[in-house]
Amino acid sequence: MRGIYSAGMGMLNSLQRLNSISNNLANVNTNGYKKDTSLFKAILEKEFYSFPKNSQKGIGIGKTETAVVLDKVVPEMTQGKLVETNNNFDMAILGKGFFKVQSGKDIFYTRDGEFKLSADGYLVDNNGNKILDETNNPIRVQKNLEINENGNINNTSNKIGIVELKNLSKKGTNYFIGTEVKDTISKIKQGYVEKSNVDTLKEMVNMISANREFEILQKAVQSQDSLNAKAIEITRT
């Protein structure tokens, strides 16, 4: 049974890898998307002891893991490629910063700088959520919007809100939550958008690898099941 259990746990982990890879490939054209990476951990560790001759006290000689399970899925925050759009409402961040977005009473964060002008004159994202300035107020703009690399709006002291995040995690596909940290390094490029940081070729290779891994483990479960059935049959004769 130990062999079936270990192979079965491996199959579950392979499925989790495939889920993350599939999600990454589905968002390869999503502006500002950050690829997911699955992290695993060993659990149910057992300690092995050596007992010297005539000794009652064992000496630890190592551990073995009885299972490996998904620990967490984390976003990989490497910079995506910047593509020029010549649209003055589009913005990309060079650095680790995030735009601040108001959704209802909540504030989320995003790297997707494909913005628009709403009917009532506010800067909004593709979901209609308002983009905030550095004092958490919605930004009212005109069609002749100009943002310099420091975030100043139309040559005024008012700045678009850019912050870094600690302990960040994803909220949905393209929003993040976390603890705000002041950003003094990131720069803004107006007329550009940041593309996804998913490497399509690498993800396809990873998908093939995960599929093969799943198939091998599936055969291992079948083989172990067959051996167990034969062992039971032998004990009955």
From TrEMBL:
InterPro entries in alphabetical order: Flag_bb_rod_N, Flagellar_basal_body_rod_CS, Flagellar_FlgE/F/G, Flg_bb/hook_C_dom, FlgE/F/G-like, LlgE_F_G-like_D1
GO terms for cellular component: bacterial-type flagellum basal body
Main location: other
Span of domain Flagellar basal body rod protein N-terminal: 4-34
Domain called Flagellar hook protein FlgE/F/G-like D1: residue spans: 92-154
Keywords assigned: Bacterial flagellum, Cell projection, Cilium, Flagellum
Pfam families, per the entry: Flg_bb_rod, Flg_bbr_C, LlgE_F_G_D1
Presence of the UniProt keyword Cell division in the record: no
Gene Ontology process terms (BP): bacterial-type flagellum-dependent swarming motility
Keyword RNA-binding set for record: no
Localization, UniProt: Bacterial flagellum basal body
Superkingdom: Bacteria
Domain called Flagellar basal-body/hook protein C-terminal: residue spans: 189-233
Family: Belongs to the flagella basal body rod proteins family.
Classification via NCBIfam families: FlgEFG_subfam
PANTHER family the record matches: FLAGELLAR BASAL-BODY ROD PROTEIN FLGG (PTHR30435:SF19), FLAGELLAR PROTEIN (PTHR30435)
Protein name as it appears in the record: Flagellar basal-body rod protein FlgF
Source organism (scientific name): Tepiditoga spiralis
